[in-house]
Every structure is written in structure tokens, then in C-alpha cells.
Write a structure and sequence with these properties.
single chain, 459 residues, alpha+beta, eight-stranded mixed sheet, 18 helices, 14% strand, chaperone
Length: 459
């Protein structure tokens, strides 16, 4: 322990002394501190200085904190990596054999990676391991972390045949980039990386986009799905397009987003932004507020059902229901009404059917009840407007009108599924005929209606 003290006057030999002219009192007081020199003080186990002298007083010693003591015979290490079980084939090896396995890379990388952590617990440092095996400290860290990520994939039930994709030499680099994600996100991103054959740089971008997505609640965030790796990556590029200064860079980022986006709602949002960017590139004036309002407002009635509404309605309709996964052929084959007994309310259709919906006799639907059909959609966010939310919806459509016009909204088949698209987009794609025209969209009733008064408010 070092402390600062004044040298003892008697310790200076007489031959080194020289006469110094006296200075005023305030100068002499200042010069006293110019002779301060460091001297060492040895402290004993009780913290008291050993030896004598003016500098040995307890008021002159610096605060002293003894270092942590290691167990006898062991090297003190401030950090210990978490223990990792060794494979059975390596558990019986001695030290020289373990170093040989690492030096010659005997076996798969995820099998010998736990040997690095085991050596660290035994007192080896990254530099000493590198000297003995040739594996650099950076690669040591990558191997250990990648093996932990791989273990988390195994615990999540990741398919074994796909897990072998990471057994190659570049496997640790790919898995290392997923270290910041939770177990579920790691599995999803690993599957996406395999399907799209991503390089380490692409996996890094994917992992960062999935990690940042919950915190980036910018405009348009609601249209993207958190559980979709492609949507998270598309949203990151969607944000970058808005930060781009040049319109060419903005369009380039949006094109990349369209290549990776997965859900229909997110795709519609990116396409809307692409349309605005192309108009700006062509020199046309674009009102952002007007475009956002148009994107959030549907062109057909959207109603929310209420509990007991059907029972209180004076007229009800019985309509066949088709799931969105059934395709356009099922939509065309759904039964049509051929006769109705008004007095007794009997309905006759041309064929048998197993799934029906009872809805109030809305005017637009009653007028075309013979050709009306209901499309059941599991997620309302697939509708082509931003105000749609995640809930099951019923799309009531008219099969009697199939010619596409720009002002309409239609049901079309896409990749074997029934989706809703604006007529303007279908015209741009050259689609002249759809499966049916949308009449209205019915949303499920809420458990709590904020617009209704409670019993206590009536008193």
C-alpha cells in the first residue's frame, strides 16, 4: 500500500543541504507542499502500518480493501463461465487429450465447444487456450455462445433434420447472431434463415429487426406481425425507407421489404408506401395525411354485431359460410337460395351445406340474398385498410357481381386462399374478374360495450 508523506528532515544528509533565502510567510507556506514525495508504507494483517516514522500515522494511509482470497491451491478468477456438461465421449479425457481435441477439431463443433468452458473453469485464460489449441479468443467466445443457442433450439423441439443445417463450418457464425433473442424467437429465426439460406450478415439483420420490433412503434407498426420474422425484417426496411433522403433509396428499401414481407396486412401497408414513393419520384404531389386517411378508411360498411341483435331483428338472413382456406371453387359451389316462403320464413336452397350464418336482414344484403355468401376470415388484419385489427370477421359478398371496377372491393383467390383486395389494385394488376364483390364486413360483438350505459347510470 502506498501513501504520501513528507520526508523526515533528519533523513537528508548534510552535504546535500543548501541555503535557501527566506521568503515571505505565504510563500514559505506554499513551498512546503513542493517537497511532498511518495513513500511506501507496509500494512500488516490488522491494517496498521509496519515500522515507524512520520508517515506511519493512521491519518496518512489510504483506504485499504483487501483483495478476495481464493481457496488454497486454486487460482483466483473474478469471472467463471456457466458450467456446461461435457459429451460422454469427452468426459473421461485428461487435460492433454482435451487440448488435442480442440487443437485438431476432432468431432462436431458443438461437441467440443463445452471443452473451452471447462478449461476456463480450470484456470485457463483465452490467451493460454489460444496458445495451446490455436483457437483465437474471438472464436472461443463464438463457439461457446453458439453451442448454447443450439441447446436452446433443441429444448424448443427444433426438427433434428433441420438442425443439421448448422453443423457446417459456418454454423457457429449463424447461431451466434441469434444470442440476443429468446428461445421462441431463436427457433422462428433459425427456421427462416434455413428457408431463405441467409448468410451471417443477413441473420444478424434479421435478429436485430426481431429484437427491435416491439420497441419501434412508429407509424404503420400495427400492420406488421411480431411473430413473423419476415414481417419484422420488412418493418425494419420500411422504417429505413422513411429515413432515406433520396427517393431512389426509399424505393429501393421498400422493394427489399416487399421481398421478405409475409402477412397480407403488412404487404398492403408496404405497397401503399411504395405507391406514394413512386408518385413523389414522378413529380406528383402527394398529401400524406390524405393518403393515410384513405388507407385507414374502408370503402364498404364495417359493422359490429351486438349480442341479441339477431333475436331482435324483424328480418334475418341465412347465408352459407365458406372459410378463407377453401378457395374460390368452394365459394362458387356454395348453395344459392331458390325459393323463400315469406309467410312462414322457410328457405329452400339448391344443395345441402354444413356451415351457415344467421345475420340481420341488412338492406344491401337482402337485395342480393340469392347470391350472397359469407367468407369467414381468421384475422381481420388481412383486410386492405389500416384500421383493421386482429379479430375474426365475416365478409359478406355478392357472387352475382364479379366484374372489377376501381371503386369496388372484391374477394379473390391468392395462393389457394380467399383474400380481400381493392378494385384499384386489381385493375393495376390486370385482373378483370373476381370471385365476388364485398357488400359489408361484420365484426364480432364485444364483451363490454363502452357506448352502453350501466345499470347504475340509469338511476
Amino acid at each position: 500500500m502506498l501513501a504520501l508523506s513528507h520526508p523526515h528532515p533528519a533523513s537528508t544528509p548534510a552535504r546535500h543541504r543548501r541555503a535557501v533565502p527566506l521568503a515571505p510567510q505565504h510563500h514559505r507556506r506554499r513551498r512546503r507542499f513542493a517537497y511532498v514525495t511518495p513513500s511506501a508504507i507496509l500494512l500488516g494483517p490488522d491494517g496498521r502500518p509496519i515500522g515507524s516514522g512520520l508517515g506511519s500515522g493512521p491519518r496518512n494511509k489510504l483506504p485499504f480493501t483487501p483483495p478476495p482470497m481464493a481457496p488454497p491451491g486454486q487460482l483466483y478468477q473474478p469471472f467463471h463461465p456457466p458450467p456446461a456438461p461435457l459429451p460422454d465421449s469427452y468426459s473421461t479425457l485428461d487435460l492433454s487429450q482435451r487440448l488435442e481435441v480442440l487443437r485438431d477439431r476432432l468431432g462436431q463443433w458443438y461437441e467440443y465447444a463445452p471443452l473451452i468452458a471447462a478449461l476456463s473453469r480450470e484456470g485457463f485464460t483465452p490467451s493460454s487456450i489460444e496458445e495451446a489449441t490455436g483457437i483465437s479468443g474471438v472464436e472461443q467466445n463464438r463457439l461457446v455462445v453458439a453451442s448454447q443457442v443450439r441447446d436452446s433450439l433443441v429444448s424448443e423441439g427444433f426438427p433434428a433434420d433441420l438442425l443439421s443445417y448448422f453443423d457446417s463450418y459456418s454454423g457457429p457464425e449463424l447461431l451466434y447472431e441469434l444470442r440476443f433473442l429468446n428461445a421462441r424467437q431463436r427457433a422462428d429465426s433459425a427456421m427462416y434463415s434455413i428457408d431463405n439460406r441467409l448468410e451471417p450478415k443477413g441473420v444478424r439483420e434479421l435478429a436485430r429487426s426481431m429484437k427491435d420490433f416491439p420497441r419501434r412503434r412508429d407509424d404503420g407498426w400495427d400492420a406488421f406481425t411480431r411473430a413473423s420474422p419476415g414481417d419484422c425484417l420488412a418493418f425494419a426496411r420500411f422504417r429505413q425507407s422513411r429515413e432515406a433522403i433520396a427517393i431512389e433509396d426509399c424505393i429501393s428499401e421498400l422493394e427489399l421489404a416487399l421481398q421478405v414481407v409475409e402477412t397480407e396486412a403488412a404487404k398492403a401497408r408496404v405497397e401503399l408506401e411504395m405507391e406514394k414513393a413512386k408518385k413523389k419520384a414522378a413529380g406528383e404531389e402527394v398529401d400524406d395525411d390524405e393518403a393515410d386517411t384513405a388507407a385507414s378508411r374502408p370503402d364498404v360498411p364495417v359493422v359490429r354485431l351486438m349480442y341479441g341483435e339477431v333475436a331482435e331483428a324483424t328480418t334475418v338472413l341465412l347465408l352459407p359460410v365458406v372459410r378463407e382456406t377453401d378457395g374460390a371453387e368452394a365459394l362458387a359451389l356454395a348453395p344459392r337460395r331458390i325459393k323463400k316462403d315469406v309467410d312462414l320464413g322457410l328457405v329452400e336452397v339448391d344443395k345441402g351445406w354444413t356451415r351457415w350464418a344467421v345475420v340481420p336482414g341488412w338492406g344491401p344484403v337482402s337485395a342480393v340474398a340469392d347470391e350472397a355468401v359469407v367468407v369467414e376470415m381468421a384475422d381481420g388484419r388481412t383486410l386492405p385498410w389500416r384500421s383493421a385489427v386482429e379479430e375474426r370477421v365475416l365478409v359478406v359478398a355478392n357472387r352475382g357481381r364479379r366484374d372489377v371496377v376501381e371503386s369496388g372491393i372484391y374477394v379473390v383467390e391468392k395462393d389457394g386462399r380467399l383474400v380481400v383486395e381493392r378494385g384499384r389494385k386489381l385493375v393495376e394488376l390486370g385482373v378483370g374478374e373476381a370471385a365476388a364483390e364485398v357488400l359489408l364486413v361484420a365484426r364480432p360483438p364485444k364483451d363490454v360495450d363502452d357506448d352502453m350505459l350501466g345499470d347504475e347510470e340509469w338511476d
